[in-house]
Write a structure and sequence with these properties.
This protein has 2 domains: about 10-130, 3-Layer(aba) Sandwich (Rossmann fold), CATH 3.40.50.10240; about 140-220, Rossmann fold (3-Layer(aba) Sandwich). It contains 5 helices and 16 strands. The chain has helices at about 25-30, 45-50, 85-90, 105-115, 210-220, and strands at about 10, 15, 35-40, 55-60, 75, 90, 95-100, 125-130, 130-135, 140-145, 150-155, 160-165, 175, 185, 190-200, 205-210. A 10-stranded mixed β-sheet has the order 5-4-3-2-7-8-9-16-11-14. Strands 10-15-12-13 form a 4-stranded antiparallel β-sheet. The chain has a two-stranded parallel sheet with strand order 1-6. It is globular, with a radius of gyration of 18 Å.
Length: about 220
């Protein structure tokens, strides 16, 4: 079923699935039972392999193949943006959790990070890979972390930090920017990690996938 170009608005978080093959961790399998699932073009095959059917497919349809007649899809032929960007421009949700955008081809991963850097809104985007997850943020966050856990903070433009706690290397008063200063492989000291920003373009918080159980309750909107 072909749909007209439009914005799809959700009150709940949305699972967005790309084409890179990524196994779904058990914690996210539970979410897939209740949250809407949208496929970015060829990501429809990953969703079907999970035994689910996406409620919508968005993309230029160059890798989706033939779709069932009753499946809803939005065909966008432009080549100036990726399927991931096409989806982000048309999904309005309090949180998007993406699979299949951080693994496989490096250029696709870089394109996904580029798309996050270009977002005009403040809603968080969580991308989940096979080993790491990347949370795009604008603003402050506090989350629990175990002693010695890797916590990387990467700017998605010029990003200023007012203060932090719970990190071995403080962010107090720092201004980060790509090609200038980044925060690779910072380390949690135990307890809560707090990051307080002072305006800026946004940043990526990168943690191991195993830390999802401690991060999801922080970013999931309350009913």
């Amino acid at each position: 079923m072909i749909l007209p170009d439009q914005t799809f608005t959700y009150r709940s978080p949305v699972l967005l699935v790309g084409a890179a093959p990524v196994p779904m961790p058990p914690l996210f399998t539970e979410l897939a039972e209740t949250l809407p699932i949208i496929a970015a073009d060829g990501g429809v095959h990953a969703v079907l392999e999970w035994g689910r059917a996406p409620e919508l497919v968005i993309g230029d349809m160059d890798s989706s193949g033939d779709l069932p007649a009753d499946m809803k899809w939005l065909h966008l032929s432009g080549q100036d943006d990726t399927d991931f960007e096409k989806c982000l421009k048309r999904i309005a949700a309090p949180l998007i959790i993406g699979f299949g955008f951080l693994d496989a081809r490096l250029d696709h991963t870089l394109a996904a990070i580029h798309a996050l850097a270009a977002l005009p809104h403040n809603a968080p985007i969580l991308l989940v890979g096979t080993s790491d997850m990347l949370l795009r943020l604008r603003g402050d966050i506090t989350f629990p972390a175990t002693v010695g856990e890797r916590v990387s903070i990467w700017p998605l433009g010029t990003q200023r930090f007012r203060r932090s706690r719970g990190l071995r290397w403080s962010l107090d008063g720092l201004e980060m920017a790509p090609g200038q200063l980044v925060g690779t492989s910072n380390i949690a000291t135990g307890g809560d990690v707090e990051i307080v920003t002072d305006g800026g373009a946004g940043y990526a918080l990168i943690r191991p996938v195993a830390a999802a159980a401690s991060l999801l309750p922080v970013i999931m909107p309350q009913p």
